[in-house]
Amino acid sequence: KEYLAAAAKAVAQQLTENPVILSIPIDPDVADFMGAFTEDAFELADMIEDGLLTVTDSGEVVYAG
Predict the structure, then answer these.
(1) Close Cβ partners of 54 (under 8 Å, ≥ 6 residues apart)
(2) How do residues 2-28 score in pLDDT, each as one tens digit?
(3) What is the pLDDT of residue 65?
(4) Region label for 35, one of left (φ > 0), alpha (ψ between -120 and 50) or beta (otherwise)
(5) Which of 11, 31, 36, 40 suits 56 as a labelling partner, its CA being 20 to 30 A distant?
(6) Is 13 helix (H, G, I), strand (E, B) or coil?
(7) Residues 4, 33 contacting (CB under 8 angstroms)
(8) Which residue has the higher pLDDT, 34 or 62?
């Protein structure tokens, strides 16, 4: 983790020093550490479990918000 934190700090420093950079090549592990691949989306099943959607007997999905 120390390597990942140091690499992330180096990327942030490069962006701070030159904010017009269009891209910086980053190792996928470092990008993941920085949150590039965080999935914040939710699935239909999650909404059904939370009671936001209801599936009727005919299979119709109804939003109950």
Answers:
(1) 48, 61, 62, 64
(2) 999 999 999 999 888 888 877 888 999
(3) 60
(4) left
(5) 40
(6) helix
(7) yes
(8) 34
